[in-house]
């Protein structure tokens, strides 16, 4: 699951395109299937979103939640692909993007009535 935070006046107009860009990177780097998009957008008022000096109102935070298993090189490739794609597709400079990957053990995920370690029918690989 991916959660994206930003100032609503800037985030709302680009949500669909940003979702496409992020999911495209998830597909190309992690092999996530087209139908496995789980994105949540949190548009905030200016007074509810504090960010570092030197950033603009385009500042966007992307939290990527994954089951453990992806190699360090794979995770770094994903982060770099997202930076590059957002800059080229949405014209948002990397200085205005923050990406964090949060990993949890498969048993800490719950979906379709089971935990992640019980799922034997995933259409993508976790250990890449």
Please provide a brief summary of the model.
The chain has 128 residues and is α/β, with parallel strands linked by helices.
Mean pLDDT: 94
Quantity of strands, as a count: 6
Secondary structure tally, helices: 3
Strand content: 25-35%
Classify the secondary structure makeup into a structural class.
Answer: alpha/beta
> What is the CATH first-level class name?
Alpha Beta
For the biggest β-sheet, the strand order reads: 2-1-3-4
Classified in CATH, the superfamily is: Macrophage Migration Inhibitory Factor
What is the end-to-end distance?
Answer: 17 Å
CATH topology: Macrophage Migration Inhibitory Factor
Low-confidence stretches: none
Radius of gyration: 15 Å
Q: What is the overall silhouette?
A: globular
Number of domains: 1
Helix content: 25-40%
H/E topology pattern: EHHEEHEEE
The name of the CATH architecture is 2-Layer Sandwich
Largest sheet: 4 strands, mixed
Any overview of this molecule?
InterPro entries: Tauto_MSAD (IPR037479), Tautomerase/MIF_sf (IPR014347). Pfam families: Tautomerase_2. With 128 residues, the protein is of the alpha/beta class. It has one domain (2-118): Macrophage Migration Inhibitory Factor (2-Layer Sandwich), CATH 3.30.429. It is 30% helix and 25% strand. It has helices at residues 8-11, 15-30, 72-90, and strands at residues 2-7, 39-44, 60-67, 97-104, 110-111, 114-115. The strands form two sheets. A four-stranded mixed β-sheet has the order 2-1-3-4. Helix 2 runs antiparallel to helix 3. The chain is globular and about 45 Å long.
């Amino acid at each position: 699951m991916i959660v994206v935070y930003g100032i609503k006046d800037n985030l709302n107009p680009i949500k669909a395109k940003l979702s496409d860009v992020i999911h495209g990177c998830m597909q190309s780097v992690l092999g996530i299937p087209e139908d496995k998009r789980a994105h949540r957008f949190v548009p905030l008022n200016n007074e509810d979103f504090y960010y570092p000096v030197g950033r603009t109102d385009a500042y966007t935070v992307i939290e990527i939640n994954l089951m453990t298993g992806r190699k360090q090189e794979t995770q770094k490739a994903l982060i770099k692909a997202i930076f590059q794609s957002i800059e080229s597709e949405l014209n948002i400079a990397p200085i205005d993007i923050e990406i964090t990957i949060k990993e949890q053990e498969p048993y800490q995920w719950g979906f379709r009535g089971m935990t992640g370690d019980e799922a034997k029918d995933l259409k993508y690989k976790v250990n890449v």
